[in-house]
């Protein structure tokens, strides 16, 4: 009897999945749900679905951590298996997600990629890529740092997940600009795996080992928060020039109290909103741009209360 009940339950779940698909489910799958950055992407996506007032519904999911790449791959494959209408994906790894995105393409399910690029040669499997120009963003962070520390001395780079598409562009853009425009010695990069506590410990160690450090860059939200907390705990706020990345409440407070000289903020809300709008256009058989730059703003104490900053802070 128990076995029959299990079979019936499985059948009911399969039927529910089929119903969701026919209702036009758009699956939004991000790198992790445990970050206000991705929660802000969710807000933008929900606003776009709400504005559409159409037949499409939206689901939102992501692994517990950005480093749980296999979990994200499974989420994409499950979305393909339940025959969703479309997928909005922020891939945590440029290579590992390609086979799953290819399965979506083979199933004729449109995919829009946000935030981080997939590896070269996979562009035929997705319809559009919306993201920060991470290389340009990294260059802006480097420029802001040079303006404060000058062109000589020692700086550190606190990064997140090695090999992530956004990390390659962002940290690459930063270090290349530093090398081309200064004689600054770069310590690192150190990889936090997007874990705030790891970034805090790494930054504490870097500050202790480099008493002559003039500047430091934290390359994503959890890393920059950990970096900021370590700087405050070490009594180095205002003594080491620190540039963060992203714009949640913690980072805004660090800018206001001088722990961070600036933070480079992406349009996370815009990624979710424009991502869904792009998929709705594709589902409506309209042409879309293959690449869309969602922009960044360098937020400092001088502009943090101005509209240009308020539009991207979260």
UniProtKB/TrEMBL annotation:
Tell me which CDD domains the record gives.
PBP1_ABC_sugar_binding-like (cd20008)
Species of origin: Rhizobium wenxiniae
Q: Where in the cell is it found?
A: Cell envelope
Molecular-function GO term, any one: carbohydrate binding
- GO CC annotations on file: cell envelope
Source domain of life: Bacteria
Q: What is this protein called?
A: Ribose transport system substrate-binding protein
Cross-referenced SUPFAM superfamilies, in alphabetical order?
Answer: Periplasmic binding protein-like I
Database matches in InterPro entries? Peripla_BP_I, SBP_2_dom
- Tell me which positions the record assigns to the signal sequence: 1-23
- Read off the Gene3D superfamilies from this record: 3.40.50.2300
| Alphabetic keyword roster | Signal
């Amino acid at each position: 009897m128990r076995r029959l009940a299990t079979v019936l339950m499985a059948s009911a779940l399969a039927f529910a999945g089929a119903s969701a698909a026919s209702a036009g489910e758009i699956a939004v799958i991000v790198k992790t749900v445990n970050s206000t950055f991705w929660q802000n992407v969710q807000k933008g996506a929900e606003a776009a679905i709400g504005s559409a007032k159409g037949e499409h519904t939206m689901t939102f999911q992501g692994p517990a951590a950005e480093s749980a790449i296999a979990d994200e791959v499974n989420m994409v494959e499950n979305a393909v298996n339940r025959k969703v209408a479309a997928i909005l994906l922020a891939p945590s790894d440029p290579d590992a997600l390609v086979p799953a995105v290819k399965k979506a393409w083979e199933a004729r399910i449109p995919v829009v990629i946000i935030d981080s690029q997939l590896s070269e040669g996979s562009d035929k499997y997705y319809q559009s890529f919306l993201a920060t120009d991470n290389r340009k963003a990294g260059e802006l962070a480097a420029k802001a740092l040079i303006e404060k520390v000058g062109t000589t001395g020692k700086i550190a780079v606190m990064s997140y997940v090695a090999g992530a598409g956004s990390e390659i562009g962002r940290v690459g853009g930063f270090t290349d600009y530093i090398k081309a425009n200064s004689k600054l010695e770069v310590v690192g990069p150190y990889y936090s795996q997007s874990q705030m506590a790891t970034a805090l410990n790494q930054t504490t160690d870097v500050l202790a080992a480099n008493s002559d450090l003039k500047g430091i860059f934290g390359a994503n939200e959890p890393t920059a928060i950990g970096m900021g907390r370590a700087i405050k705990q070490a009594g180095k706020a205002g003594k080491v020039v620190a540039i963060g990345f992203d714009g949640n409440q913690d980072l805004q407070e660090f800018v206001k109290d001088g722990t961070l000289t600036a933070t480079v903020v992406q349009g996370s809300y815009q990624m979710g909103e424009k991502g869904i709008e792009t998929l709705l256009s594709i589902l409506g058989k309209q042409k879309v741009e293959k690449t869309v730059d969602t922009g960044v703003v360098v937020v400092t104490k001088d502009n943090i209360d101005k509209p240009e900053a308020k539009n991207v802070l979260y």
